[in-house]
Amino acid sequence: MSVDKLKKAMCGVLAVALYLASGTVFAALTDMPLNLTRGVTETSQRVYDLHMIILYIVTVIGIIVFGVMCWSIFHHRKSKGAVAAQFHHSTTAEIIWTIIPIIILVAMAVPATKTLVFMEQTSDAEMTLKVTGYQWKWRYDYLEEGVTIWSALHEDSNKARQRDPSIDPETVENYLLEVDNPIVLPVDTKIRILTTADDVIHAWWVPALGWKRDAIPGFITDNWTNIKEPGIYRGQCAELCGRDHAFMPIVVHAVPKAEYVAWIETQKAEQAASAASANKTFTKDELMRKGEQIYTTQCAACHQAEGQGIEGVFPSLVGGAIATGPAADHIDIVLNGKNLMPAFKEQLNDAELAAVITFERNKWGNYEKITAKGHADVVQPADVKATR
Amino acid sequence: MSYAAVHDDVHHDHKPTGIGRWLFSTNHKDIGTMYMVFALIMFFIGGAMAMVIRLELFQPGLQFVDPQFFNSMTTVHALVMIFGAVMPAGVGLANWMIPMMIGAPDMAFPRMNNMSFWILPFAFALLLSTFFMQGGAPAGGWTMYPPLVLQLGDGLPFLIFAVHFLGISSIMGAINIIATVFNMRAPGMTFMRLPLFVWTWIITAFLLIAAMPVLAGAVTMLLTDKYFGTAFFDAAGGGDPVLFQHVFWFFGHPEVYILVLPSFGIISQIIPTFARKPLFGYASMVYATASIAFLSFFVWAHHMFTAGMPLAGELFFMYATMAIAVPTGVKVFNWTATMWRGSMTFETPMLFSIGVLFMFTLGGFTGLMMGITPVDFQYHDTYFIVAHFHYVLVPGIVFGIIAGVYYWLPKWTGYMYDETLGKWHFWLSTISVNVLFFPMHFLGLAGMPRRIPDYNTQFTDWNQIISIGGLAFGLSQLILVWVVIKCVRGGEKATDQVWEGAHGLEFTLPSPPPFHSFTTPPKVTEAMAHS
Ligand code: HEM
Ligand SMILES: [Cu+2]
Ligand SMILES: [Cu+2]
């Protein structure tokens, strides 16, 4: 076989192989995530359309430019006997390839500007949701209703994301995209969303709504959304915010208006009940059970599941000076925080604080140490209230 | 043309010997070599960190490292690659080549040259020592945004002083390059006859002088916020955390051009050589580079669209970012026109340059997409961004540097490198770099945020493909080390011109060149400069 024939045969084999490969690849791809979501708001759909238009434009430009390069690479090679021309500039060509891109860019800028103007119209909202980022959870305030929701990583995901997980991440539904308390929003309502943060910068992002916005401590930024379809929409914090940045998801349940109103009413009732519980006295068992739940969602991220902490960063609670010291000091640090330790007085009510403090004081052999030193092992809501 | 006098000189070079030759070196070639070796070491240190990142991301769940350490890996990987690998490699090439390209004996300030190199190992010792400190290594991202970065433990002042030292080193390097080019050109080497690599480096040097002090200012404000009670970035004290981002990116966007312009210069030398045809549109290349550099100071806020800005601000930065595409396009078209109707051969430097041409352009396309503010609200801080800047940084910039190394290696050592190995290096790198970075576009669009150690299971398949690509890319780079070592030790003798189509003063010197490049200045004519 001549070299030429060999080359042709090889090209043929290669073409068939590529074709087969692309077939399998395509089949696999249809299950693999590939593109932006079109979302469920006017904004997200406009953004998606804009994304696709620009993608098509750059693809066409790419095909032309890469096509010319490839043509030249294949035809103007020395091995094919090409003799180099010696031209080294052409004012006409240079003007053309300056003007044409400018025209294309202007054509892109027009729809982009329109969409941007549309997205910035935050006025005329029917309700306001304030979103506050914390390390590493979200607080939502329904400003008109006086309802507050704290939303953190769901317990299953939280267990599965540990170094030696008690659950396999593969078996957790919506792994890392599920929270303990999802927020509920009405559809067909223009909602103003204010973002801010308590500690460091976070970013609130639900792709289906079509935007993300930084949550900046000390500043409030202004955005809006209007969800068209009921459904569950998930997102994540999108600005690096420390160790557990990957573990503060966002879940929005969009529901019809009537359902939303009913939900808000239950929330109000629950908040009233929990305020009342601050005046109750609980048994140690009740406190321990509740305390364990709160510990896993609020404290374990730093102090770890077994209270051992992380050397040099987060102190161990196992036999720790505060966890086995006077109750007043323990209450104080949980209420007010210290350095990296957040203040919990806003996030937890007196009953919850009493429960988690009691839990820490009795777990991991701390009970024995506390009783030996003669400090109180049980903390009641009233004790917390007194320290506030 | 021959320089008999120079040829004779080879045998009368008085090279210092032993460790002193390197420690006290004032020779542009030795310092250039040290820069290149340093950059290579840093490339592998940063690469090792990337391997840790990809290992952890191979599967959902946390298998190997703590999230805090993961964040340190992404942060220090970026700092090491940008300030330790890419920038020193660029300066190393400038040191080696600029005096030879303009017909000078050495750099203008040889002692400052020595100092600007020797600061680097100390700066990186400071940075890397933070791994052993209370609170660990920096983990707030290479962008060092407050308030997060201020939560760092004892490592913070070390990070800040490392950045200061790097800045001082870069500024000294830049001053040296400007002084050399402005004062030491051979007779007849007018500005518009300078090789493009020299041009891109002058412009880079001016960018460095303008941008590095801004970074120094930003990190100094971090230092005083943390230790001296100021509140530049603390809202509680009347400051603004976003102010840092403005200052940082006022440095940061010019910085990306500091990284890329030398690479543009390199491929502007290589493509004409292997197309055997003069560079198309020399003057427009110079003007395009200058306008890119100028515009780069007016686009910084495209990194901060989601921080919240008035509409007018968003529109301004969107239009300005789009405008950069015009001169960038001009450069790509000029390179294409240089190849057009040439007589091309595809030795390794040319292959890597063509790689730059294709894959930098691809990164430029995604850059343009992200410049469109409303869509960037979706792209920002996802893997789409990671794909974008890795396309411009790795197959765009690192490939350019590698192309330069292959192109000038025979000149430096006097021996031809192993072409077969070079081709293997190119093809393995090119395939693996795309397996590594292309799927990141999909992940980002589908909603995977950047800088996370763990992800939802829908992203597993792509992440596994990416990690395999990453490992393959990392291993492929060992071939480069092998080629370089082999070439230094010997091989086929290189001619003075090295490449059939090569032009320029460096190719009139013997291979390897004498210790002091041009002791008698050559005379440069128009025909020599643009042929
Ligand atoms: C010259 C080579 C380039 C390099 C080295 C480079 C590098 C980078 C880097 C490192 C980032 C991410 C920064 C961060 O958030 O940590 C970035 C983002 C960005 N780049 Fe580039 N880039 C280059 C070219 C371009 C071009 C040509 C354009 C536009 C025409 C562009 C537009 C953007 C935009 C808009 C972003 C911000 C995206 C976002 O964060 O949402 N870049 N680039
Ligand atoms: Cu966050
Ligand atoms: Cu930029």
Task: Please explain how this structure is put together.
The complex is a heterodimer of chains A (about 400) and B (about 525). Chain A has helices spanning about 5-30, 40-75, 90-120, 155-160, 255-275, 285-305, 325-335, 350-360, 365-375, 380-385; strands at about 125-135, 135-140, 145-150, 185, 190-195, 200-205, 210-215, 220-225, 230-235, 250-255. Chain A folds into 3 domains: about 40-75 and about 90-120, no CATH class; about 125-275, Sandwich (Immunoglobulin-like); about 280-385, Cytochrome c-like domain (Cytochrome Bc1 Complex, Chain D, domain 2), CATH 1.10.760.10. Chain A has a 5-stranded mixed beta sheet with strand order 3-2-1-5-8. Chain A has a 5-stranded mixed beta sheet with strand order 4-10-9-6-7. By secondary structure, chain A is an alpha+beta fold. Chain B has about 525 residues and is mostly helical. Chain B has a single domain (about 30-530), classed as Cytochrome C Oxidase, Chain A (Up-down Bundle). In chain B, α4 crosses α8 (about 240-275) and α11 (about 350-370) packs antiparallel against α13. At the A-B interface, α2, α3, β7 and β9 of A face α4, α8, α9, α10 and α11 of B. One copper (II) ion binds near residues 253, 302 and 303 of chain B.
Arithmetic mean of pLDDT of chain A: 87
C-alpha Rg of chain B (nearest Å) = 23 Å
Mean pLDDT of chain B: 93
| H/E series of chain B | HHHHHHHHHHHHHHHH
The second-level CATH architecture of chain B is Up-down Bundle
CATH class of the largest domain in chain A: Mainly Beta
- The first-to-last residue Cα distance of chain A is 92 Å
Over all CA atoms, what is the radius of gyration of chain A?
30 Å
What ligands are attached or bound here? Answer: protoporphyrin IX containing FE, copper (II) ion
Please state how the strands of the largest beta sheet of chain A are arranged side by side.
3-2-1-5-8
Main beta sheet of chain A, described?
5 strands, mixed
For this structure, the quaternary state is heterodimer
The number of domains of chain A is 3
Query: Which descriptor suits the 3D outline of chain A?
Result: elongated
Structural class of chain B: mainly alpha
Which CATH class of chain B?
A: Mainly Alpha
